[in-house]
Write a structure and sequence with these properties.
The chain is mainly beta. The chain is built from no helices and twelve strands. The relative contact order is 0.27.
C-alpha cells in the first residue's frame, strides 16, 4: 500500500457548490470534488444510503446534500448529519497550477 496523489480535474471545470465526480487513479475509483466557499473538497462519490451517485450534489453551509433523498454530509469530516451510521470518505486536496490534486491510498 502506498500514498498516491493524482490530478483529478482543472479548477475551471468545477461549478461553485456543485459536486463533480472525477476518476481517482488507475484502479477505477472515483471521488466527488466540490468547490465551496473558496475551498476545494474531495469525498466519496456515492451516497452510502442507497449507493446513489453524488454527481451534481449541492453544497451549502459546509454540507453536501444528496439529490436523491436529501441526506447531508459534513464537507470536512464526511459525517452524515441526517442519519447516524453513514458517512463519506474524505480525501486530502491541494491545488497547483489550476489543477485539483487528490491524495489517497493505493493498494499494490
Amino acid at each position: 500500500m502506498r500514498r498516491a496523489r493524482v490530478a483529478v480535474c482543472k479548477t475551471d471545470e468545477l461549478l461553485p457548490d456543485t459536486g463533480k465526480v472525477c476518476a481517482l487513479g488507475s484502479e477505477g475509483g472515483e471521488c466527488l470534488v466540490v468547490f465551496h466557499q473558496g475551498r476545494y473538497y474531495a469525498l466519496g462519490s456515492l451516497c452510502p444510503h442507497q449507493n446513489t451517485p453524488l454527481n451534481g450534489a449541492h453544497a451549502a453551509a459546509n454540507t453536501l446534500i444528496c439529490r436523491r433523498h436529501g441526506y447531508r454530509f459534513d464537507l470536512n469530516s464526511g459525517d452524515c448529519l441526517t442519519a447516524s451510521g453513514y458517512g463519506l470518505p474524505v480525501y486530502p486536496v491541494d491545488v497547483n497550477d489550476d489543477f485539483v490534486y487528490v491524495s489517497y491510498w493505493e493498494y499494490d
